[in-house]
């Protein structure tokens, strides 16, 4: 990746806002949840996904076609942003897009752990980070978790995964490995980030993302039944939680929501926090956290519109669109009721 040229936030943000306006909204989702997979693919063919659906239509059909088209479009959208960006702006965006390297690692790890067929794992990968196709193919070919650790030696994830593998062998759950991936990603995001006026809101957004990741991780650990201390898996860099209090909050979602409501996030997250309070399951709580982060990113983008924050906010919103369409397609294939599927979506 190159960072030649000067930063050009006005141009990139204008292009990103045009893309954002094309994202699906409530009306499109209401139509999609009442369609079968073939109808969803045809609907996508008349949208921003036209090129991908047409290119893949001769090789795939149904949910497979939808998923591969979604992931190809997602990667293209983000690679377009990198093509538009220059200088320091490029570097900030490229660093953030490594989240898809982290996503792909965790997806492959989960696939090996659950003995999921290779083709199903590959369908969930998003090739928008820095890993090239050769490395991704080698990761997909691995049959043991230790192979993954070896293959990633020398990447930003290598040292953390190597240290976490011993913990994984002791407890037999993926939390240590997944946490090591998340920690490596956030550490490289914050490393060397100079907080000038143009990056102040971006730093705030990253702190929020880490805070919400810590909340999610603590809740998952508390409900995993494994002999794990949430304090050991705390990710530094947020502002809302101290490591020493995260274990207690993990066992009391009401107190966790109160902590968020009384923080600097509270005023900007009124509707999202109501959803958090009403969530009656871990999955529902996690969806509400996703919505809260989306809402917070949008609010910061309006505070300083020429920072990288509006671009990152679009990246999150595009991810959610892809996740929503995938959830609809899989739900319809499984015969779920449209109203039940709608409850699974993250929509602002």
Automatic annotation (TrEMBL):
Does the entry feature the keyword Nucleotide-binding, yes or no? no
Q: Cellular location of this protein?
A: Cell membrane
Q: What is this protein called?
A: A-type ATP synthase subunit C
* A GO cellular component annotation in the UniProt record: proton-transporting V-type ATPase, V0 domain
Example of a GO biological process term: proton motive force-driven plasma membrane ATP synthesis
Q: How does it sit in the membrane?
A: Peripheral membrane protein
Q: What is this protein's function?
A: Component of the A-type ATP synthase that produces ATP from ADP in the presence of a proton gradient across the membrane.
Q: Taxonomic classification, please?
A: Archaea, Methanobacteriati, Methanobacteriota, Stenosarchaea group, Halobacteria
Superkingdom of this protein's organism: Archaea
Q: Which Pfam families match?
A: vATP-synt_AC39 (PF01992)
Q: Which organism is it from?
A: Haloferax mediterranei (strain ATCC 33500 / DSM 1411 / JCM 8866 / NBRC 14739 / NCIMB 2177 / R-4) (Halobacterium mediterranei)
Q: What quaternary arrangement does the UniProt entry report?
A: Has multiple subunits with at least A(3), B(3), C, D, E, F, H, I and proteolipid K(x).
Drop me one GO molecular function for this one.
Answer: hydrolase activity
Question: Which family does the record assign?
Answer: Belongs to the V-ATPase V0D/AC39 subunit family.
Keywords of this protein's UniProt record, alphabetized?
Answer: ATP synthesis, Cell membrane, Hydrogen ion transport, Hydrolase, Ion transport, Membrane, Transport
């Amino acid at each position: 990746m190159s960072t030649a040229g000067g930063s050009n936030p006005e141009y990139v943000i204008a292009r990103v806002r045009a893309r954002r306006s094309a994202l699906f909204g409530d009306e499109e989702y209401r139509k999609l949840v009442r369609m079968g997979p073939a109808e969803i693919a045809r609907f996508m063919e008349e949208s921003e996904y036209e090129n991908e659906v047409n290119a893949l239509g001769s090789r795939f059909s149904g949910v497979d076609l939808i998923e591969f088209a979604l992931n190809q479009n997602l990667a293209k959208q983000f690679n377009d942003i990198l093509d538009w960006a220059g200088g320091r702006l490029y570097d900030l965006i490229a660093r953030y897009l490594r989240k898809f390297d982290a996503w792909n690692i965790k997806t492959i790890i989960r696939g090996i752990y659950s003995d999921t067929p290779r083709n199903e794992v590959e369908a969930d990968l998003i090739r928008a980070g820095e890993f090239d196709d050769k490395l991704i193919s080698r990761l997909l070919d691995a049959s043991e978790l230790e192979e993954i650790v070896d293959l990633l030696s020398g990447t930003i994830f290598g040292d953390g995964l190597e240290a976490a593998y011993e913990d994984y062998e002791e407890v037999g759950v993926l939390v240590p490995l997944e946490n090591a991936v998340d920690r490596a990603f956030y550490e490289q995001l914050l490393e060397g980030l100079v907080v000038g006026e143009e990056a102040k809101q971006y730093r705030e957004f990253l702190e929020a993302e880490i805070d919400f990741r810590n909340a999610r991780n603590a809740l998952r650990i508390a409900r995993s039944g494994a002999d794990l201390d949430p304090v050991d898996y705390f990710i530094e860099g947020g502002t809302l939680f101290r490591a020493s209090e995260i274990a207690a909050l993990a066992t009391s979602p009401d107190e966790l929501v109160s902590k968020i409501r009384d923080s600097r996030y509270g005023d900007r997250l009124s509707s999202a926090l109501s959803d958090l309070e009403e969530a009656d399951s871990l999955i529902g709580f996690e969806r509400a956290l996703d919505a809260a982060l989306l809402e917070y990113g949008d609010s910061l983008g309006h505070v300083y519109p020429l920072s990288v924050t509006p671009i990152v906010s679009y990246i999150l919103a595009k991810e959610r669109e892809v996740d929503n369409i995938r959830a609809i397609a899989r739900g319809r294939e499984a015969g779920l009721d449209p109203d039940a599927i709608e409850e699974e979506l993250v929509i602002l």
